[in-house]
Amino acid sequence: MCASLALLLGACAKDDASQPSTQTAPAVAMGNGKANTWVNLDGQGNPTAMGFTLSKGALDQLPATVPATEYMLALPDAATQKTPFQHVMIDWNPLGHEPAGIYDVPHFDFHFYMMPMAEVMQIPPYAVNPAGFDKVPAAAYLPTGYVKNPGGVPAMGAHWTDVSSPELHGQPFTETFVFGTYNGHVTFWEPMVALSYLRTNPTLEQDIKQPAQYETPGYYPTHFSILAKPDGSYEVSLSNFVKR
């Protein structure tokens, strides 16, 4: 009987271990709310979705100062172990940024970084190391249809824009997906979202344009979403991960 009980308990433990789960990281204060990251895992511990939640009030009473206010978010261990992403940096731009007439509206840059935070913060202004910003990865590591913007941003890198984005063709800016590079490497994937668009309480689902090759092995997302939830929070996520 004891042996049977042990086998039963062992089976239960195995079943529990194979269940989908969620890991979360500590929250960071933002506006009148908070932001925290999370990762959803399948029964084998592989990522199915990851992102962050902005609680009710997180979009209220944000700083009006420039330059941008940065909110640094750690990722759960499973996210950093299974995907190339190391942390998230939310940049709040109350006056937007260049180019004028396109992105000069209040918006967020949601950076999913592929390099440690300490290394990100060491990226200097463009004038200090233009070679680092201008050294681009092999074309296969970036999706077709993206072009590098001039110059670069300290503690970020060079930004690459999708030339088919509607805001580049006379439409108001709502959201877009940007890639970043520095010193010959892809360093971040970045949804960029206007505050006015978030205020419409959107349900956005879209595929992420993919490169032909991936520099670092791991699970990469193929889908991006924004979900305004009934409790007043917003969920920003990368999902449909594929092992590369």
From TrEMBL:
Residues 42-92 form the TTHB210-like domain. It comes from the Bacteria. InterPro entries: TTHB210-like (IPR033786), TTHB210-like_dom (IPR040832). This is TTHB210-like domain-containing protein.
